[in-house]
Amino acid sequence: MTAGENSVQSKKSIPDLAPLEAVLFDVDGTLCDSDPLHHYAFREMLQEIGFNNGVPIDEEFFVENIAGKHNHDIAVRLFPDDMPRGTKFLEDKEAMFRRLASENLPPIKGLYKLTKWIEDRGLKRAAVTNAPKQNAEMMISKLGLKDFFDVVILGSDCERAKPYPDPYLKALEVLKVSKDHTFVCEDSVSGIKAGVAAGMPVVGLTTRNPENLLMEADPTYLIKDYEDPKLWAALEELDKKGGSLKTAA
After folding, report:
1. How far apart are CA 75 and CA 130, in angstroms?
2. How many CB atoms sit inside 10 A of residue 208's CB?
3. Which of 21, 98, 179, 184 sits at 20 to 30 Å (Cα–Cα) from 90?
4. pTM of the predicted model, to two decimals?
5. Which keywords belong to this entry (predicted)?
6. How many Cβ atoms sit within 10 Å of the Cβ of residue 179?
């Protein structure tokens, strides 16, 4: 199935997905609160090279130009006239991020409650990320989720990264599950757009990005974290309707 054939918006809610087959997660800002580390690395390194006349980038600039985007797209935005320099800068920045994250990478509140709920129901699961491979593997390992995910889908392994639906469509294909029985967890405008374009309900997290911006991307739900009562009310209703394939069997 091509991206074009399946790029339809879904207004299904989580209970409508019964029986549930899979849950797909973004990584940065969705599994862990990593954006402050990315912001810090970008701010320090851009200031060092005199970007923006040496004025440190603020939260607004970070959200608008960097958060949730693939590194190629970030390089185009920051270094439009010198892509080789942009590529090298991003490589160095990611190395700095990994050093910072290895010391402190807090999981999103309630994450392990949700992962246990998913495991208990025997659902399939994938991490779908625009992050570089080394970053994704390090964060997933640091969070103790290496054995949790059936597969990790990278934006760089697809023809187009998020905000296009390709990475999520690839996850559905690899897991052999239907978009009609799968939902997505995301925290960025780019990621929510990708999940919606792939035809799945998206649970948007207000980890760091402004609520009004996230709403423009059309998530089905917007929650603070994985302890949000809205999420658990929806999951409880799903269980009543037939839950997952395992509970329905």
Report:
1. 14
2. 20
3. 184
4. 0.90
5. Magnesium, Metal-binding
6. 25
Q: How far apart are CA 209 and CA 140, in angstroms?
A: 21
Comparing CA positions, the residue from 224, 223, 204 lying closest to residue 214 is 204
Q: Tens-digit pLDDT profile for the chain (249 aa)? A: 333 333 334 478 999 999 999 999 999 999 999 999 999 999 999 999 999 999 999 999 999 999 999 999 999 999 999 999 999 999 999 999 999 999 999 999 999 999 999 999 999 999 999 999 999 999 999 999 999 999 999 999 999 999 999 999 999 999 999 999 999 999 999 999 999 999 999 999 999 899 999 999 999 999 999 999 999 999 999 999 986 665 444
Q: Classify residue 207 as exposed, middle or buried by CB count within 10 Å of its CB (0-12, 13-18, 19+).
A: buried
Query: Which strands form 151-154's sheet, in the order they lie side by side?
Result: 151-154, 124-129, 22-25, 182-186, 202-205, 221-223
Q: For residue 223, what is the enclosing H or E element?
A: strand 221-223
Enumerate the active-site residues: 26, 28
**CA distance from start to end of the chain:** 28
Cis peptide before 163 (omega within 30 of 0): yes
DSSP string, 121-163: TT-EEEEEESS-HHHHHHHHHHTT-TTT-SEEEEGGGSSS-TT
